[in-house]
Amino acid sequence: MKKITIDDVRNSFRNVPDFPKKGIMFKDITTALKDPEIFRYMADAIAEMYVNKGITKVVGIESRGFILGSIIAYKLNAGFVPVRKPGKLPADTWEVSYSLEYGEGKVEMHKDAITKDDVVLLHDDLLATGGTALAGIKLINLCGAKKIYTNFICELSFLDGRKELEKVSEVTSLFEF
Ligand code: AMP
Questions:
Q1: Which of 18, 71, 106, 138 is the most exposed place for a label (fewest CB within 10 A)?
Q2: Where are the domains of the chain?
Q3: Residue 115 CA, ligand 1 centroid: distance in Å
Q4: pTM of the complete model beyond 0.85
Q5: What is the reported pLDDT for 101?
Q6: Which segments of the chain have a pLDDT < 70?
Q7: Which distant-in-sequence residues (6+ apart) come within 8 Å of 167 by Cβ?
Q8: CA 46 / ligand 1 centre spacing (Å)
Q9: Ligand 1 near 101 CB (within 6 A)
């Protein structure tokens, strides 16, 4: 079996110009996910970084944050919490508005999803401006948590989204574009 490198992972993302809007270079994760070795590498590498951090909940952001987020939670023996688009969660929710690289949105999380004793890992596929992840952190803080870590598979470093996030969370990613 070929040994996967981080360059293999980076190269497995497909560039789609002008999606979903003109001027955006979309990093398509589906070409990475369909490769079994790359898929496993990404999940293992992220879980490995958090193995000794006492994570009790992994919060995944809809929808690409659910894919590895649930595997990472399983590997860390943590619970999984979805942050969803409005109107999807059935019980009482907190709601936060945000803007992202190519638009604006709202996200929700169940009010009883996180408690003050939780050590939380917020996960999404990609960090661009950081707006989406900051909304996730606000939701977690509305519930209260002992500590929040934030992780992405990759980040668009030229957008500097990490700068604001690092003020409120410890941030990691596997690689940069
Ligand atoms: P942001 O809030 O600007 O950091 O945007 C991050 C969120 O939007 C993540 O959920 C990403 O999946 C998605 N996203 C933003 N820009 C891109 C991009 N260029 N390629 C792929 N996904 C993106």
A1: 18
A2: 53-176
A3: 28
A4: yes
A5: 87
A6: 1
A7: none
A8: 19
A9: yes
Residue range 149-166, pLDDT digits in tens: 999 999 999 999 999 999
Counting atoms of ligand 1 from 1, which one is nearest the CA of 130?
4
Instruction: Supply the pLDDT for residue 115.
Output: 98
| Closest ligand 1 atom to 28 CA | 21
**What is the Cα–Cα distance from 100 to 4, expressed in whole angstroms?**
31
The 10s digit of each residue's pLDDT in 54-77 is 999 999 999 999 999 999 999 999
- For the CA of 65, the closest atom of ligand 1 is 10
Cβ–ligand 1 distance for 130 under 6 Å, the answer yes
The domain over range 53-176 is classified in CATH as 3.40.50.2020 = yes
Task: For ligand 1, say whether the CB of 119 is within 6 Å of any of its atoms.
Answer: no
Confidence at residue 1, expressed as pLDDT on a 0 to 100 scale = 66
CA dist 100 → 23, 48, 51, 107, 127 (Å): 14, 28, 30, 12, 10
Specify whether 101 is catalytic. Answer: yes
